[in-house]
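Limitations

Structures in this collection are predictions, not experimental determinations, and the ligand pose is part of the prediction. Treat each record accordingly. The example that follows, with iron/sulfur cluster as the small molecule, is included so readers can see exactly what is and is not provided: the inputs are given verbatim, and the output is the predicted complex.
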Amino acid sequence: MNQDVLIKINERLNWLSSLKSIDKGESITKAIKNSGFSRRDFMKWAGAMTAFMALPASFAPAVARAAELADRLPVIWLHMAECTGCSESLLRSDTPTIDSLIFDYISLEYHETLMAAAGWQAEHNLESAIEKYKGQYVLMVEGGIPTGDTEHYLTIGAHGTTGKQSAVKASQNAAAIFAIGTCSSFGGIQAARPNPSNAVSLSKVTDKKVINVPGCPPSEKNIVGNVLHFLLFGTLPALDVFNRPKWAYGLRIHDLCERRGHFDAGEFVQNFGDEGAKNGYCLYKVGCKGPYTFNNCSRERFNSHTSWPVQAGHGCIGCSEPDFWDNMGPFEEPMGDRLYNTVLGLGADNVSDKIGIGILALTGIGIAAHALIAATRKDSEV
Ligand code: FSX
Ligand code: SF4
Ligand code: F3S
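Predicted complex:
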């Protein structure tokens, strides 16, 4: 079975290698070497990415080859309404990582933050990139998209092109489309009540299939992992109900959290800075939304596996879930009283206080709560 998949992957990689590479004067392999990474570092990275994408270890050489062929995959990256944190997540490391090097390499065809061009030149660059790589480019869109009467909020350029028009146009001839970040996936902060610009997700404005890579911001690993996955398979990954790749968003934060033992033992931080906080206790009572949030932060962390919100001492705020700005707040209070009590007639805090080991009940409640959040979203995003 794995063998059949590998044969297919190698056929695809052979086809990719027959395509013209983006001309950067040197190959990706060379660029990585020139940045001080040895072949051994690179293969180690490929092995880690293979595990990260939940593929068998025997796929590591194919993953390495896919990374080396990433320059066959032009990326067009558009900015809509957002804070640019998604680009920052990927590009602002102290030292370049292999992920950021690969991404830098392939993304410069058109990236509004990174490119040198401005004004007419920038508009021209976008049009020519779409034309030149018709049907081949990967479109990545960051940010929510203002619509309706207020879509002029994102109007740019001499032709008065709106953000919505740019996104729709670029999506028409893309080989794959990724909504990068929660804003593009679900509307994000600008779509939070009262949503003055009528911002919506990318999937709401295009009739093409969109893969959502949420997180505010998503980790650099989730962004690059999706590019690699597309290079390897050329098809859509298995997606959850919110069109998030299951290999990245299949588990809850809570499932692999390093503080989970304390949750199970009923050991909670009651206030920031208390004894429990010093002892690394569970952050549920100071607002952690890890039990309702599907993402891989507790396993992969950020900044080359350095840390993540819960490790830094603050609860997860549910940033990869639809409408989290409206649904997950207040961010430093537990959902318990508001959600569990009203919906399920159970106080999660009572459960965890009285029983201590509330794991089974809470897991069930967590899942039910997640389903409820899904059912009560303002709009259907999928
Ligand atoms: Fe949104 Fe990306 Fe949050 Fe910011 O731009 S997902 S506001 S981190 O950066 O789109
Ligand atoms: Fe970790 Fe938050 Fe779950 Fe506690 S509630 S175990 S801090 S994810
Ligand atoms: Fe976001 Fe929670 Fe991860 S806040 S970054 S999904 S830990």
